[in-house]
Write a structure and sequence with these properties.
about 190 residues; two-stranded antiparallel ribbon
Length: about 190
C-alpha cells in the first residue's frame, strides 16, 4: 500500500487535522500583522513569534521529521490574500518572494535538518543593512524613507519594512532553533 502523504504519521489524528488548517492560517496572520506594523501595533517581532507558533504546531503534530516545505498553493494564496488585505502589490510580492525563497531553500529538508540559525544570521544582516544603507546616502543610521512608485498601480514601500523583515527572520530562526533542539532532546 503506497501512501502519497508528504508528512510523517502523526501521533494524534485530531492534532494532524487541526495542524493542516492552523499552520497556514497562523502564517497568514503572521504576515498580516507584519505588514500592519508601521501604522498600528505589530511588526517584525510579534509576526516572527506567530510564525514560530506555526512551527511549534507543526512540530507537535508531525514531529521533527516533517518536511519544512509548504504547499505551493499556500505560498501563492498568501501572496494574493496579502495583496488584497493590504491593498498593496508590493506587500503581496514580498510575501510571495519570501515564501518562495523559504520553499526553495528548504526543499527536501525536514524541520530538524533545516538550519534555522542561518535564518537568524540572514535576518541580522538584513537589519544591519537597513541601518547602514541610509548612511551611504548621507542620512543618519536607521533613517527610513517612504518610497513611492508605480508598477501596475501607485504604491508605496517604507524602507523600514526591510528592517522588520530582518527582525522577523531573527525571531523566527532563533525560536525555531530552540524548539527543534527541545524536540530532538526527547529521544532521537
Amino acid at each position: 500500500m503506497s501512501e502519497t502523504n508528504t508528512q510523517p504519521e502523526a501521533e494524534s489524528p485530531v492534532l494532524a487535522v487541526v495542524a493542516r488548517l492552523a499552520v497556514p492560517l497562523t502564517v497568514l496572520l503572521s504576515i498580516i500583522i507584519f505588514f500592519q506594523g508601521h501604522n498600528k501595533p505589530g511588526g517584525g517581532f510579534i509576526a516572527g513569534v506567530l510564525a514560530a507558533i506555526a512551527g511549534v504546531i507543526a512540530l507537535l503534530a508531525y514531529g521533527v521529521h516533517a518536511k519544512v516545505q509548504a504547499p505551493w498553493w499556500v505560498v501563492i494564496a498568501n501572496g494574493i490574500v496579502i495583496t488584497i488585505w493590504t491593498q498593496s502589490p508590493s506587500a503581496g510580492l514580498i510575501t510571495f518572494a519570501v515564501g518562495a525563497a523559504f520553499n526553495l531553500i528548504g526543499c527536501k529538508k525536514t524541520i530538524a535538518q533545516f538550519e534555522w540559525w542561518k535564518m537568524s544570521v540572514v535576518g541580522l544582516l538584513i537589519s544591519l543593512l537597513a541601518g547602514v544603507v541610509p548612511m551611504l546616502f548621507g542620512l543618519a543610521f536607521m533613517d527610513h524613507q517612504l518610497w513611492h512608485y508605480t508598477l501596475i498601480v501607485h504604491d508605496h514601500l517604507p524602507t523600514a519594512t526591510f528592517f522588520d523583515i530582518g527582525v522577523y527572520l531573527i525571531v523566527l530562526g532563533t525560536l525555531m532553533t530552540i524548539f527543534v533542539e527541545l524536540g530532538q532532546e526527547g529521544g532521537e
